[in-house]
Design goal:
The chain has 149 residues and is mainly alpha-helical. 57% of the residues lie in helices and 4% in strands. The chain has seven helices and two strands, in the order H-H-H-H-E-E-H-H-H. The protein has helices at 6-10, 14-25, 31-42, 46-62, 96-118, 124-133, 142-147; strands at 66-68, 74-76. The protein has a two-stranded antiparallel ribbon. The termini are far apart.
Length: 149
């Protein structure tokens, strides 16, 4: 990053500058520390720091180059290996047919739950309030309105 001029840095996004900072530091940093370093190299004011740090945090969370670590600091994703977990070893011993049957049962239960929700009459209590509110109203035919009866 020392090779770049201020003009070069001004043309870069905050994410690109953050990547350079994390490469140079070779350690993870907090959002505030990274953005403070960006503000320092770009010679941005304290008010700019305060006004833009939220947007910078959002940019870090959506940028695939960065990873938020458990301690709340940011690092480059390429510095960390991704551990693939097999969360459902319990199904390894099942035959394909047994697995399909389990999935079918789950789908049927899910459908039955949805069907119960559709035909659930518990919302009728609210309808009674509306009915009471309009019980004194009279329905009048359009012809009666025009004739003035």
């Amino acid at each position: 990053m020392n090779n770049l001029t201020k003009e070069d840095l001004e043309l870069m996004s905050y994410g690109d500058i953050a990547e350079l900072i994390l490469k140079d530091e070779k350690k993870s940093l907090s959002t505030a520390d990274i953005f403070q370093k960006i503000c320092d190299v770009l010679e941005l004011s304290k008010s700019t720091f305060e006004n833009k740090i939220g947007g910078f945090y959002t940019a870090l969370t959506t940028d695939k180059r960065f990873i938020l670590l458990e301690d709340g600091t940011w690092d480059l994703k390429k510095n960390h290996s991704v551990k693939k977990l097999n969360l459902d070893d319990s199904f390894d011993d099942l035959e394909d047919e047994e697995l399909e049957n389990l999935q079918d049962e789950d789908m049927e239960e899910s459908y039955e739950d949805e069907e119960k929700d559709i035909y659930d009459d518990s919302s009728d209590e609210d309808d009674d309030d509306v009915t009471d509110e309009y019980k004194d109203l009279v329905i009048v035919d359009e012809d009666e309105l025009e004739s003035g009866e």
